[in-house]
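Morning!

This is the sequence you dropped in the shared folder:
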Amino acid sequence: MGRPEGVEVAKTRTRGPVPTYSRVVPGVSGRVLVVDDNKVIRQLIKVNLELEGFEVVTANDGVECLDVVHRVCPDVITLDVVMPRLDGFRTAAQLRADPRTSGVPVAIVSACTQHEVETGIVAGVDAFVAKPFEPAELVRVVRRLAEGKDRRDGRKGAPAGRGRG
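The structure's back. Tokens below.
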């Protein structure tokens, strides 16, 4: 199965202990909801996105994501695949089925096997970042999704879930 146009799969490998970012970007680049059951991974993603100017809210699994998504109105959501209670694919499918969140870009941050990519595409996922990931690649993918959402919305700062037709 080929990938539909516009779906991105980032394949990176983490190198040794190299500094990722040394500056905080002034201003907020957007709000990201990071969903992962692994606290260390959640924190790693959160820190790297915050250093690039994103506001980050976290959730432990898909159930918590669906509980908080309407309160935080994220510009982008990152999802792990394997999580308790509700996995990333079922979470993505529920986000797409809800008119209030159907336009929020979703990136899977996981092993990104061929099966995961194919299942993610069916669930409506916009991008994939393979673990282990380079922080710079993760930031690039999230920034691209956030900027694309702004273009779909037609204006900066529009409420989440609007703009995808």
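Headline: The mean pLDDT is 81.

More detail when I'm at my desk.
O.
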